[in-house]
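Sample pair:
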Amino acid sequence: MNAIMTNPEAVVILIGSFLVMLAMGVEILYGLGFSAILTIAFLGLPMTSVFQTMITDISNTSLMAIPFFILMGEFMSFGGLSDRLVDLADACVGWMRGGLAMVNCVDSMFFGGISGSPVADCASLGPIVIPMMEKQGYSKEFSTAITMASSINGMIIPPSHNMVMYAVTAGGVSIAALYMGGIIAGIVLGVCLMVYCYIMAVRHNFPYGTKFSIRHVGKALYHSVTGIIAMLIVVGGVFAGIMTATEAAAAAAIYCGIVAFFVTRQAKVKDLGGIFKRTLKQTATVLFLASCATAFSWVVTYLRIPQAISASLLGLTDNKYVILLIINLILLVMGCFMNTASIILITVPIFLPIVKAFGMHPVQFGIMMVMNLGIGLLTPPVGTVLFVGSSISGLPLEKCAKAILPPLVAMLLALLLVTVIPGITMFLPSLFNFV
């Protein structure tokens, strides 16, 4: 391994300083930047080349889709879409045993296909669904856990700004192919969670929901059509080749703003300041993180760390599935301590060449990675969705962390299926000739 690395001492400085700063409570983005600068100074390399790389990489036009997706989610949250999606999900699956728990899973699939954000999903749907479930006899712990777990579909079912980040980092990966690959993968995750809900419903004698009615389905579908159109603008525009992901995100954000202010009329002019402030703050955080992670990744590549890790993994075994299991475990552990954008920017240059050597398509790996990182949002100490779920439900964080463990088993099963069955992620992209 040392023979592959150009400078083992620099590797110790890079990784060691980053871990020390994390332990000191320094923000990840600052830790990435400072550790890269320290290592570059130790190596005696010109700083200007690194800073030029940082600026060039975040100037990628594909990253412009991210602020538009964030703005789109903000408009839909203020536009009152959440309760309409809950009603549509209730009409479709509420009649089953444990129907309201099923509704929770399905409405997250609907909302995830519009907002693209697990945090927005949990924050918007949680205050509606959790109290409803409690009134029907579900425990607060179970209600909160399934709300948090199902919200992860916001990262997988398109649109997803995390997939845009992956596509830009991986280079040459079609965003449309990733979006198509995420559709079936998201459904698989939703079905696994619904099976878990059914098992729990039978075990704890949870109630049936409302009686199935075609009329109810039609009425709910009619009221939800504005949200469905938003999803079709993004997904349909990209799939049809009419718009790029950035153009589709911008068009959908404008459409959602019109819906929120002039159709549902639930968003008010006074809300605009907060909407744009949150959008700008999240966008600035993502782009600053991307630039710092770019510097870190530049040093990682210069030191040939990816080649060293690849050689080490391949030295352990030549079994494809064992390697994929190890990569999944590494990503899951990293997800406990780092945010999603950081992990994507740091690990894609390291792991993508390894999985490609075993014949895994970058689209399949991208979906596998995003699903991994979604699970990381549910695990302490950096589990954003876990914090949101605790805040909404009023449960202490430790109770939320304990309650999320059973649904995590279902989610890990979905992750395993996506990892070992290429058809789940590659069927639609292949069918429409995107790969």
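Residues 8-431 form one domain.
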